[in-house]
Automatic annotation (TrEMBL):
<keyword id="KW-0456">Lyase</keyword>
<dbReference type="InterPro" id="IPR015421">
    <property type="entry name" value="PyrdxlP-dep_Trfase_major"/>
</dbReference>
<comment type="similarity">
    <text>Belongs to the group II decarboxylase family.</text>
</comment>
<keyword id="KW-0210">Decarboxylase</keyword>
<keyword id="KW-0663">Pyridoxal phosphate</keyword>
<protein>
    <submittedName>
        <fullName>PLP-dependent decarboxylase</fullName>
        <ecNumber>4.1.1.-</ecNumber>
    </submittedName>
</protein>
<dbReference type="InterPro" id="IPR015424">
    <property type="entry name" value="PyrdxlP-dep_Trfase"/>
</dbReference>
<feature type="modified residue" description="N6-(pyridoxal phosphate)lysine">
    <location>
        <position position="295"/>
    </location>
</feature>
<dbReference type="GO" id="GO:0019752">
    <property type="term" value="P:carboxylic acid metabolic process"/>
</dbReference>
<dbReference type="GO" id="GO:0006520">
    <property type="term" value="P:amino acid metabolic process"/>
</dbReference>
<dbReference type="GO" id="GO:0030170">
    <property type="term" value="F:pyridoxal phosphate binding"/>
</dbReference>
<dbReference type="GO" id="GO:0016831">
    <property type="term" value="F:carboxy-lyase activity"/>
</dbReference>
<dbReference type="InterPro" id="IPR015422">
    <property type="entry name" value="PyrdxlP-dep_Trfase_small"/>
</dbReference>
<dbReference type="InterPro" id="IPR010977">
    <property type="entry name" value="Aromatic_deC"/>
</dbReference>
<dbReference type="InterPro" id="IPR002129">
    <property type="entry name" value="PyrdxlP-dep_de-COase"/>
</dbReference>
<dbReference type="Pfam" id="PF00282">
    <property type="entry name" value="Pyridoxal_deC"/>
</dbReference>
Length: 467
């Protein structure tokens, strides 16, 4: 064995202790650590011939890169849609690295850790009150979940014309109807060869601005003259968390032949809230659903789930099995994740989610989700009452989109957001809302409190007064 590996092995316990204590320092100061870094980015270093061993490597990391680490899992990182990591999810994440399994098979000899993933999917279905008729698995994020679901949708479209697109490639343009898809769904269409320009954009409901107009949807469906198509619906648009009308879509599905995919990356968590779950009524008729775990489930990156109705299992294996795979029969009888998702090898991504779901249960997640919703309403009210800021859409769930009252405001808005994010007290994301620049704040982190909102509002006021 290499000498440095040998000495790290003999010092393993003390190395892990060092990392644990450094991790705890980060966690214990996460509220105060800045949300942005002004540190100089170090120059790239080449590979050492000999290597440094674990202890000196940690030192080098601390000198060069640790100062760049921001409090992105802390209570005031409101940009994108970013969760933190619950204590139990970190326990599961550490063990996922230590055990280093590659979950594929569920029986036989060798690694059968995929059983943990299958159980975690059942916990997810329980959390969201979804039927057991979905087969699910873990991928890196909602982008890959959208990709996975749309790959099966693509195969379904092929089959309606007697073709096997996975084997033959796409031979015709596939109609994809959608109103306000997340950019990652469009990226998935590009990756799948369906073309990001090929979507049929459906109008949105007057007044709602982001939810699909069912009237226009039906009008566009009629224009297809019975051709099967894919519908991408939104359970929570990223800006204003608008929900498509799933009850109406379910009705359309009784008349028209289409694959219904729902991107519920974070909006699906409305299912955990007694006051907001009505947004999701009938979403369980979707053929496929995207859910992100590194958002509101508050587990570490990279974690998301795809759910595809079990009746489509053959289409799913046709899409994902390796080309040299033997005939599989019923893919559920010989279940192997290898044949159900894009990657062959993966880490045990389900373990952090399994730990967190077991540790906090339905009540724990209801309290996280309702806390975030309450904070979004609190922040929204403060924006509404302010002389300087204006809400651009009602607070439906957990995201706020706002702008400045003063006009013209576009350059001032940039300056304001730069200063706000530069303060390190909070991080928010620039966005566009109906062709206007705007700012988005998203509440999903389990640690955030009203005190954080108050602190941010004071900082916002200080900065806008000075501009
Ligand atoms: C609705 C929706 N879908 C998909 C995504 C992409 O998620 P990820 O970054 O996990 O790939 C996001 C990210 O914010 C989202 O809000």
């Amino acid at each position: 064995m290499n000498k440095l590996l040998q000495s790290d092995l003999s010092e393993f316990e003390s190395l892990l202790e060092k990392v644990k204590s450094q991790g705890l320092d980060y966690i214990n100061t996460i509220d105060d650590r800045p949300t942005s870094s002004h540190q100089k980015i170090p120059e790239t270093l080449g590979l050492d011939k000999q290597g440094l061993g674990g202890r000196k490597t940690l030192q080098l990391f601390n000198e060069r890169f640790e100062p760049l680490i921001v409090s992105s899992s802390g209570p005031r990182f409101w940009g994108y849609v970013i969760g933190g990591s619950t204590p139990a999810s970190i326990m599961g994440d550490w063990l996922a690295s230590i055990y280093d399994q590659n979950p594929q098979a569920i029986k036989g000899t060798g690694d059968i850790s995929a059983n943990i993933e299958l159980e975690t999917i059942q916990l997810i279905l329980d959390l969201f009150d979804l039927p057991k008729s979905y087969v699910g698995g873990f991928v890196t994020g909602a982008t890959m979940s959208n990709f996975t679901c749309l790959a099966v949708a693509r195969q379904w479209i092929g089959k309606t014309a007697g073709k096997d697109f996975a084997k033959e490639g796409i031979t015709e343009k596939i109609p994809v109807l959608t109103a306000t898809p997340h950019s990652s769904a469009i990226k998935s269409l590009a990756l799948l060869g369906m073309g990001s320009n090929n979507i049929v954009k459906i109008k949105t409901i007057e007044g709602h601005k982001e939810a699909i107009s069912i009237d226009d949807l039906e009008a566009q469906i009629k224009k297809l003259n019975g051709r099967p198509f894919i519908l991408i619906s939104s359970a929570g648009t990223v800006n204003t968390v608008d929900f498509d009308d799933f009850k109406a879509i379910k009705k359309l599905k009784e008349t028209y032949n289409f694959w219904w995919h729902t991107d519920a990356a974070f909006g699906g968590f409305a299912a955990c809230s007694n006051t907001h779950k009505h947004f999701l009524e009938d979403w369980d008729y979707s053929d496929s659903i995207t859910l992100d775990c590194h958002k509101w489930l508050n587990v570490p990156y990279e974690s998301a789930v795809f759910l595809v109705k079990e009746e489509h299992r053959l289409l799913q294996t046709e899409s994902f099995q390796n080309s040299n795979a033997p005939y599989l029969g019923d893919p559920l009888e010989n279940f192997n994740y290898l044949n159900f998702l894009p990657e062959n090898s993966r880490r045990l991504k389900a373990l952090p989610a399994w730990f967190s779901l077991r540790a906090y249960g339905k009540e724990g997640y209801t309290s996280i989700v309702e806390n975030s919703i309450g904070l979004a309403q609190y922040f929204g009210k403060k924006i509404e009452e302010s002389h300087d800021f204006k809400l651009l859409a009602p607070v439906r769930l957990n995201n706020i989109v706002f702008n400045l009252k003063r006009k013209p405001n576009q350059n001032v808005l940039d300056a304001f957001l730069n200063q706000l994010n530069g303060s390190g007290k909070v991080f928010m994301t620039p966005t566009f809302y109906h062709d206007e620049k705007a700012i988005r704040a998203s509440f999903v982190n389990w640690r955030t409190t009203e005190k954080d909102v108050d602190l941010v509002c004071e900082e916002m006021q200080r900065i806008i007064n000075a501009i």
